[in-house]
């Protein structure tokens, strides 16, 4: 005698149970992908921080295949996307490769990829010029407008280049917690980054660029460790001096004060994630924008 078909409500219960089990199984794999990605990120960062560690000698391909769902074919494709040769070891990666690998692992670990880039560098290296180029040519990138206590230079527009504020207003902003960071730059005026526009832009998934001094970059690193810190370098020291004098916006005393600060700042370049040489404005701008997270297909 053939078995009788199950009544429809029994089918529905069985189907619902199967769906719950499948959902749980998918969640378990997803969690373990996130956990293993977090572990892989910790391993990579140990290797980057300590070149003598065992982690630094691990091949990147081995690191990636430790993540469930990444088989050899997907790893090979990913290495290609990240522009990392398959012989590379964790400790031997270049700074851009590290940024991209970190971005990938952070995303897989369920975290937010870095969409905030901080551009710093010595006076007159061209930070303002490169930032202005990015504002013009990459309109989807939010260029933060700082508050400052210095007066506008000819051609500078309040709300576009800076918010030009009094000392009292700057004090109020600090007290109200409105600044992500602030610093007295070149021992003269105060400059600070308004926080609300940055939080809003990042929450909306936009890419954000801050063009600030070295002290500010250090403070942003503390407040937002996921930010990528870029140090803009002049082709040579002589070219830096030429650009400062050629700009003609400071008198001789201010120029020599700025060059003193510049020497100290140049010595701190290794604190940064990536160095970009400003030979050519459009090329430097492209290099900076390329560091900002764009999703990598998994
Ligand atoms: N790639 C480049 N080649 C030649 N000149 C450049 C280049 N980039 C910038 N400059 C010039 O160098 C001078 C300094 O540039 P800019 O004012 O952008 O520097 P900065 O880093 O913002 O300086 P500061 O920190 O003092 O505000 C300007 O006259 C600018 O036109
Ligand atoms: N820490 C911060 N530094 C800032 C900010 N905005 C600009 N700056 C830096 O100040 C100097 C001088 O700028 P200038 O326009 O007077 O020539 C330059 O190095 C900028 O990068 C800021 O919000 N925070």
TrEMBL record:
One of its GO terms (molecular function) is ATP binding. GO terms for cellular component: cytosol. InterPro entries: GK/Ca_channel_bsu (IPR008145), Guanylate_kin-like_dom (IPR008144), Guanylate_kinase (IPR017665), Guanylate_kinase_CS (IPR020590), IHF-like_H2TH (IPR055201), IHF_actinobact (IPR047806), P-loop_NTPase (IPR027417). Belongs to the guanylate kinase family. Residues 114-293 form the Guanylate kinase-like domain. It catalyses: GMP + ATP = GDP + ADP. It is an enzyme of class 2 (transferase). Its EC number is 2.7.4.8. HAMAP family: Guanylate_kinase. ATP binds at residues 121-128. Keywords: ATP-binding, Cytoplasm, Kinase, Nucleotide-binding, Transferase. This is Guanylate kinase. The keyword Cell cycle does not apply.
């Amino acid at each position: 005698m053939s078995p009788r078909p199950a009544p429809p409500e029994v089918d529905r219960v069985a189907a619902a149970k199967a769906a719950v089990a499948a959902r749980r199984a998918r969640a378990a794999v997803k969690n373990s992908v996130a956990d293993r990605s977090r572990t892989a990120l910790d391993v990579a960062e140990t290797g980057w921080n300590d070149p003598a560690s065992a982690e630094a000698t691990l091949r990147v391909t081995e690191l990636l295949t430790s993540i469930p769902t990444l088989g050899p074919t997907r790893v090979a494709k990913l290495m290609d996307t990240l522009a990392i040769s398959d012989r590379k070891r964790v400790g031997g990666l270049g700074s851009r490769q590290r940024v991209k690998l970190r971005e990938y692992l952070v995303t897989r670990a369920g975290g937010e990829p870095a969409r905030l880039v901080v551009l710093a560098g010595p006076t007159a290296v061209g930070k303002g010029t490169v930032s202005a180029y990015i504002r013009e040519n990459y309109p989807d990138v939010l260029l933060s407008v700082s508050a400052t206590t210095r007066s506008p230079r000819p051609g500078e527009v309040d709300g576009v280049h800076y918010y030009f504020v009094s000392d009292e207003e700057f004090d109020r902003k600090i007290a109200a917690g409105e600044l992500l960071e602030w610093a007295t730059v070149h021992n003269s005026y105060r400059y600070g980054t308004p926080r609300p526009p940055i939080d809003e832009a990042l929450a909306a998934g936009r890419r954000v660029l801050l063009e600030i001094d070295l002290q500010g970059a250090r403070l942003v690193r503390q407040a937002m460790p996921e930010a990528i810190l870029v140090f803009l370098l002049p082709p040579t020291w002589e070219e830096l001096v030429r650009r400062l004098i050629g700009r003609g916006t400071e008198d001789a005393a201010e120029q020599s004060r700025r060059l003193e600060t510049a020497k100290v700042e140049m010595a701190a370049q290794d604190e940064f994630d990536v160095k970009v040489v400003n030979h050519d404005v459009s090329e430097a701008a492209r290099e900076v924008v390329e560091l900002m997270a764009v999703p990598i297909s998994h």
